[in-house]
Amino acid sequence: MVAVLLLGVLGYGGWKVWRSVDPFTTPVSEGCQVTVSGQSYTLDLEQSGNAAIITAEAMRRGLPPRAASIALATAMQESGLRNIDYGDRDSVGLFQQRPSQGWGTQAQILDPWYSSGKFYAALVKVDNWQSEDINDAAQSVQKSGVPDGYRKHIDSARAWASSLSGSSPQSLSCVNRSTSKGSSDTLAKTAAKGLAGKATITTTTSSVTVKATSTQTVWAAVAMIMASNDSAPISSASVGNASWNHESKKYAVWSGVTGPSSRPSGAATATAGTVRLIE
């Protein structure tokens, strides 16, 4: 019996080692993942791009990450973070807003920037929205027939808002196995619009570079750019001495830490970040 047990233990240990180096291990699905406070939450590439727009619109309006948390929890429940052209009665879009209820035309609501903006415009009119329970704040805007439906998305929404707002550096990783090179201008579009006036974003044919006086703003821009990689697959990203390199089978982790600031000519001390497209 002892010999059998020993063989069993050795066999299990050998299996674990084999699994750790097995080249045939099933790769993760394409998408992006945030890891905050030891918990990971994954979205596919379409969803992560929409999450970036929702967060970018909050930042464009000068709203805190909590606003993005509420909006993301709402869109996760209402549409699964997909910009759908159907829904209950005349509901459409990320937030399932209804033209007949004054949210705008169907075409307007199907613009993620417009629908996000309309959500925030309604949210800031809610008393105590900055301290109210996230589910209840969302319900105050949506008036859903499932009033507690947003609650199950709160942890994920908060993690994504924290990462995309730059509040949780080095928390985002993505997998996109496409070999079709996209446009750096398209890749940078969400961050550039959301952070206009707060960061300088420049592009070349193969990279996007961000500079800002706030390190958090740079991390927000880099996270938004990475989350938008459905439009242009990326190979690497860096902020200071921290770096990330795409891996096709798993969500790669960041290495290093944010390094010293760089000082561009004629500007205040700034932090720089770069995202590179696949070659």
UniProtKB/TrEMBL annotation:
This is Uncharacterized protein. Residues 163-184 are annotated as: Disordered. Residues 174-184 have a biased composition (Polar residues). Residues 163-173 have a biased composition (Low complexity).
